[in-house]
């Protein structure tokens, strides 16, 4: 399944938009479907947005499940770098425990 982030939220910088996306994404993956998330026509996500969306989802389902179910697509180089850095933070945290 492919979803366009710009169809779900109006911005990618607030906690409120991040939480809205989290609720939507959690419902979509509840039946273990892989979802491609297109970042086309969106700005680079803020840490507030990522914390309330991807971060909350990783906390709920674990990093491995997140990586196997959620596939970011159509990213600008800046968006790709931000997501890579954000997810890398979760990988680093998991090795500390």
Please give a structural write-up:
A 3-stranded parallel β-sheet has the order 1-2-3. It is built from 5 helices and 3 strands; from the N terminus they run βααβααβα. It is globular, with a radius of gyration of 12 Å. Helix 2 (15-29) runs parallel beside helix 3 and helix 3 (47-61) packs across helix 5 (77-96). The protein is mainly alpha-helical and 97 residues long. Helix content is 63%, strand content 11%. It has helices at residues 5-8, 15-29, 47-61, 63-69, 77-96; strands at 2-4, 35-38, 70-73. The protein has one domain (2-96).
Number of helices: 5
Strand content: 5-15%
Strand order of the largest sheet: 1-2-3
Query: Which structural class do you get from the secondary structure elements?
Result: mainly alpha
Ends apart, CA distance between termini: 34 Å
SSE order in H/E notation? EHHEHHEH
Q: What gyration radius follows from the Cα positions, in whole Å?
A: 12 Å
How many domains is the backbone divided into?
1
Number of strands: 3
Mean pLDDT: 93
How would a crystallographer describe the biggest sheet? 3 strands, parallel
Helical residues, percent: 55-70%
Q: Looking at the structure, what is the overall shape?
A: globular
Question: pLDDT under 50 segments (min length 5)?
Answer: none
